[in-house]
Design a protein that fits this description.
347 residues, Immunoglobulin-like, globular, Invasin/intimin_cell_adhesion, Big_2, BIG2 domain-containing protein, signal
């Protein structure tokens, strides 16, 4: 009996060792340069990234394709081209925000509305990180760029040359996503390479990676015909990877984790308001009605103007221009609050 017990004990110890080896093997996923990772969402579509480096800041990723076309920075009354400093740019603000509505006017003099950018105004659009889950945002490492803590950025010229000048990354050339093409006022094709911003200024301009010609050149920051290809540093373990092999057809998929289907009660109690227009213009003494989507007929919308000396609004969303200037008209209901820029012009 003692011999049988000893043999059983040895067997269990051996099996335990094998079990530990298997767990260890499964937990050690080594990400390689060039691997594909699916992480986060933009325009309701999962984002595919490429691993381009692994250093003390984390795993460096860049989006596999150009996600959208946007101005680097809007122009302002004091800068007719827009800032060429990444730290001041409206693009940096957008990339690093998870807000439903970004109040650019509260942050700086640069507001990316239709008057201040050439094509693809993005005032009123959710921040880039808005549709990332809390878990996903926690996986992104902050780094210091231009003395500011930053999570999402564009590559510099040196980084572009160092990481993307290989055939593995198509020498840095990139296509826009179908969603980028669909949502751009400027016509591009998802079958053709597209220019995109890099984090490098030159006088009043900013360098871009050219899509149709070799090398880089500069463009005015307010140019909204240029693509955005974000980069970020990631901290990830095997526990965060739900599936995939890292290939183009089977990317590693980062588990979103805290995504949950809301209950019927939660669906009824929460709404998400949205203006039918991101910005409007009217003349002094002219009246227009703003409309919001997302509320039911029985919901009561609360309206408010940020500056009643420029524009006023009644409880039905009718806005009247008082004097030239720009004001924000707020609409709120059941915990959701949005705003629309209103520009009042002289008759």
């Amino acid at each position: 009996m003692k011999k049988v017990f000893t043999m059983l004990l040895v067997f269990l110890m051996v099996m335990s060792c094998f079990s530990n080896v298997n767990v260890q093997a499964e937990s050690d996923i080594s990400l390689k340069i060039g691997d594909y990772i699916e992480f986060g969402k933009y325009l309701d579509t999962p984002i595919t990234w490429r691993v381009i480096d692994n250093n003390s800041d984390g795993i460096l990723l860049i989006s596999d394709k150009i996600l959208c076309l946007k101005a680097f920075c809007a122009q302002s009354p004091n800068n007719k081209y827009g800032s060429s400093e990444f730290s001041e740019s409206t693009l940096r603000t957008w990339l690093n925000s998870d807000a439903y509505s970004i109040d650019y006017a509260e942050l700086s003099e640069y507001v990316p509305n239709k008057r201040n950018v050439e094509y693809n105004a993005y005032v009123g659009e959710e921040g880039f990180l808005h549709y990332f889950t809390s878990h996903e945002k926690n996986l992104i490492n902050e780094i210091t760029l231009d003395n500011l803590r930053t999570k999402v950025f564009m590559l510099s010229q040196n980084e572009l040359d160092q990481y993307l000048s290989k055939s593995l990354f198509n020498q840095g050339y990139a296509y826009p996503t179908p969603e980028a093409v669909k949502n751009s006022e400027y016509v591009v094709k998802d079958t053709e390479y597209c220019d995109y911003w890099i984090r490098e200024k030159f006088d009043a301009g900013v360098y871009i990676m050219r899509g149709r010609k070799e090398g880089s050149t500069t463009r005015q920051p307010k140019n909204g015909r240029i693509g955005v290809r974000p980069a970020l540093y990631l901290s990830v373990t095997s526990d965060d990877i739900s599936s995939g092999s890292g290939s183009e057809v089977s990317p590693y998929i980062i588990d979103r984790k805290d995504v949950k289907t809301p209950s019927n009660k939660e669906k009824k109690s929460k709404i998400m308001l949205r203006f039918d227009k991101k910005e409007v213009a009217l003349n002094v003494n002219e009246i227009i009605q703003l409309k919001v989507k997302g509320a039911s007929k029985n919901d009561k919308i609360t309206w408010k103007s940020s500056d009643k000396l420029i524009a006023i609004v009644d409880n039905l969303g009718n806005v009247k221009g008082i004097r030239p200037g720009i004001a924000k008209i707020y609409a709120s209901c059941r915990g959701s609050k949005v705003f629309c820029y209103v520009e009042v012009k002289e008759n």
